[in-house]
Design a protein that fits this description.
- The structure is a homodimer of 502-residue chains.
- The longest helix of chain A has 29 residues.
- In chain A, the strands form two sheets. A six-stranded mixed sheet of chain A has the order 2-1-3-4-5-6, sandwiched between helices. In chain A, strands 8-7-9-10-11 form a five-stranded mixed sheet.
- The first copy, chain A, starts with 41 loop residues before the first helix and ends in a 10-residue tail after the last strand.
- The first copy, chain A, is an alpha/beta fold and 502 residues long.
- Chain A has 14 helices and eleven strands.
- The first copy, chain A, is globular, with a radius of gyration of 23 Å.
- The N terminus and C terminus of chain A are likely disordered.
- Chains A and B meet through helix 7, helix 8, helix 12 and helix 13 of A and helix 7, helix 8, helix 12 and helix 13 of B.
Chain lengths: 502, 502
């Protein structure tokens, strides 16, 4: 599809977002296959492919352009020429205080690289609000469907691994505004944090009737997504679980049950939640859904695989395919002597499988049926909360956290991944720390700024050696969540001082 | 009253708690004055004085006993004689791995000191559950009174300063189980944390009708207590606010209003809370209550001082005193052209003033009307959550926190205080990290252990120089909050390794 990361010169220089300009289609779809599953939404696939290509090319061309700029460093007019080239190719200027030192000090290419990653991130996030492109199911329609299935909230924890970063928008084709996404290494979410969220959501129903009133017979649904790699299961599975599928799935299931028990025993009046465990083959994006029984319990070997469903229903009409998927779910339960899940859960699972069929074809159409980057290939680490935009495969290693102290394990995994991806090649690790806030709440912005700076500083302290040598750079950004503006840069390590303004 | 801290040999060696043995009365009440305010509960005062004396003597005699033990260090039978002396005087053994090295290495007196502080803490906490001595208002009675005043929850933030550590049980004479106490340096509580608590409390009303149902016209009450020092206002006031009364009061009021605004703008349907700002003179424990107007607003110069109330009502009958206090509150509002607070708030303020009259007499009876230790004189730092027992003046510098990263400012203030109190005299800073958990929630204990170890490690990392030189020791403890057992020691820095078991 698009240029292999960082090694081939990109042909998509003009694909950075320009205000007011429509997105260019790019020379996409090299692998496009004509034959798709009857349920596949091909137009949606094309739009998603174009978007993924544009964003990733913007990141992946940075190295090429910086090499060209580096070649100019002994030029008498270096600064002017470098800026001209940057504006032409990258669409933005480079930090002049870095360029200005090039006559006397070695040019700080690591700082320039981090700057470009941060600036590219900022521009694409801002672009996503100027030109929203959510091709997933209509938000409202999905909210209605979810409630009809018996759920008023979808709390989703994928692994922090970048190969699951596109899980919501691409793999499951869900509208991102309708899903709370909190990634953790190994999908090992924090039970206390989820408990707090549950209380908040339930309180909102009681007080405000949002999304529905508490007498509505709906539940909070917690979903965990673990992953495995069918082409290299022993090495490219989940690092947090030693690349062991069964361990990853088992740990996810155990954590889910721990959360449910915490609610059932911590609150009275039949308080409970529903759970769902999903696995994903990161080579093909095909999911497997562990089918709960009528009481909501799951076991590891009772699941339905979307790749099988795809194969079994590839030659029938869409309506027949839908009916067959429902029947397949029933058969999985029956084959394991388990009661069938309730009709709402069955409908939800069927929906996820149907949506995933489009993604299976997406990988076939645009990635030859199996991604070339079966392993890690993230472009930056995202930590904090937010990051709702740019949910693209292998773009972000996302560690949800409120403090580095609590999120250290997730961050450590990310830094280890990037030590291989970037530091080993001389490139720095770009870490974006971000916290969003509700502008209508007074002082919320000040608190977000405070937290953002604190976490940014803690990241630098934890990885002090890397930071001191310019091998790790941190951008601190916030965003007002109630408006459609972009991110606001609070500070970064690129201004000469550790918390200087970017 | 009791021996001056750490300098005079205590005469109360036998006052450590012994299982099954009734508390000894001690030779207390040296300053006892016969004439008290008609509202003063003298019997309660005597019990509180006895308790304060016993606990503080247990901590303050440690140094004396260790000096005697140190004098034996070259004795051939040192270990045996030291243990015998420790058991006789302190009531517990010393860590033998420390004593065993005394023949070859210098005796680690700092480790022994920290051990004794931790052990004394553990024993008195455990004792407080074996022999509960809550002489404050009956819990249930106070809960009923509070709801009658229009409040279903009392969320109280004093300054972390040890001179306010006894605010709930002594100064305000409230049952500690009915008050959520979260101390922060300068009383600067975290708005997000309080928001979470508010949601949790309101949710509990909706879901469980506890403490009352949401249709009851009651509110959540957030109280802040700042402090000042009448004998040395420029130096012994609140360190977090530069010993500036007006600044301390103003900051407390601003934070309270920030919290209320966050609720009012973050939630619909008239969601709101009530606020109360209280000041305390740490010399005499007399409080000043800032009287809200009918809309709940307060200003800094509209307050009623318990010392004035005491003087004005000292010669009348209890019932007349009560009536005059109510009238005084009304007059304060009238004198400032402000509307009177609602009747429930008036009743609550009157109650607090009446309770505080007993404390004013307590200080007169047992501390000569003004504490001898007007400045800092804490015995250890408590950090984490819990610490509901041993709420005694200048015993604990208590920093409520979930992570060191978020609570660093509070901890830094505490470490600075103890650098003067202890490190300057060669003594280590004893830090107790504690987290309580609900035993009925599965895995809650494991999570408390995890958090406790994480925070304990972060404390050691933040103060690495002090910790490396044995000038800071950390005890990590948890407690099951639903049972009346004591604390469980998880780890400490005293076992030779940083996270070894105590």
């Amino acid at each position: 599809m698009y240029s292999k990361r960082r090694t081939t010169r990109s042909t998509f220089w003009t694909n950075f977002p320009v205000e007011g300009e429509a997105r260019s289609a790019g020379e996409t779809n090299a692998y496009r296959v004509t034959e798709c599953h009857p349920l596949t939404r091909q137009q949606e696939n094309a739009a998603l492919a174009r978007y993924e290509e544009n964003v990733k090319n913007a990141f992946d061309s940075i190295e090429t352009h910086l090499r060209d700029i580096a070649a100019l460093r002994h030029d008498a007019e270096f600064e002017r020429r470098a800026q001209a080239l940057a504006v032409e190719r990258l669409g933005f200027e480079l930090p002049s205080h870095v360029l200005a030192k090039a006559w006397i000090d070695p040019l700080d290419m690591r700082a320039l690289y981090a700057w470009c990653v941060f600036e590219t991130y900022r521009r694409w996030v801002n672009d996503s609000y100027r030109q929203p492109m959510d091709v997933a199911d209509n938000e409202r329609e999905f909210a209605v469907f979810l409630q009809a299935c018996g759920y008023h909230y979808l709390d989703f924890t994928p692994c922090a691994d970048g190969r699951l970063a596109h899980a919501v928008r691409y793999v499951l084709r869900l509208p991102k505004t309708q899903v709370r996404r909190r990634a953790h290494a190994g999908a090992m979410f924090d039970v206390e944090d989820s408990l707090e969220k549950w209380v908040e959501v339930e309180h909102c129903r009681y007080r405000q009737g949002v999304p529905n009133t508490p007498d509505a017979p709906t539940r909070y649904l917690k979903v965990v997504m673990y992953h495995y790699c069918s082409s290299d299961p022993k090495h490219e599975g989940c690092a947090a679980h030693g690349s062991d599928d069964a361990k990853a799935a088992g740990a996810g299931l155990a954590r889910l049950m721990e959360f449910r028990t915490a609610i059932e025993s911590g609150f009275c009046c039949g308080a409970s939640i529903d759970l769902l465990l999903i696995g994903i083959d990161t080579d093909t994006d095909a999911i497997r859904v562990h089918v709960p029984d009528a009481t909501g319990d799951m076991v590891l070997n009772r699941y339905i695989d979307a790749a099988d469903v795809y194969a079994e229903t590839a030659r029938v009409s869409p309506s027949q395919a839908h009916a067959e998927i429902i029947e397949s779910i029933r058969q999985v339960s029956a084959a394991h002597d388990a009661s069938a899940p309730n009709p709402g859960m069955t409908a939800l699972i069927a929906k996820l499988l149907e949506n995933n069929i489009s993604q299976i074809d997406y990988v076939r159409q645009y990635h030859g049926g199996r991604y070339r980057d079966v392993g890690h290939n993230e472009r930056f680490i995202g930590s904090g909360a937010g990051f709702d935009e740019l949910q693209l495969r292998n773009l972000t290693y996302f560690a949800y956290l409120k403090t580095v102290e609590e999120g250290a394990i997730d961050l450590d995994v990310g830094v280890k991944i990037f030590s291989g991806l970037n530091v080993s090649r001389g490139l720095p690790i770009p870490v974006i720390v971000r916290f969003d806030y509700a502008g209508s709440v007074p002082q919320a912005r000040e608190r977000a700024v405070e937290r953002c700076l604190r976490v940014g500083q803690a990241v630098q302290t934890r990885y002090a050696d890397l930071a001191a040598n310019g091998k790790l750079h941190v951008l601190m950004a916030i965003r007002e969540s109630e408006r459609d503006g972009g991110v606001e840069i609070i500070a970064s390590t690129l201004a000469g001082e550790s918390t200087g303004v970017h």
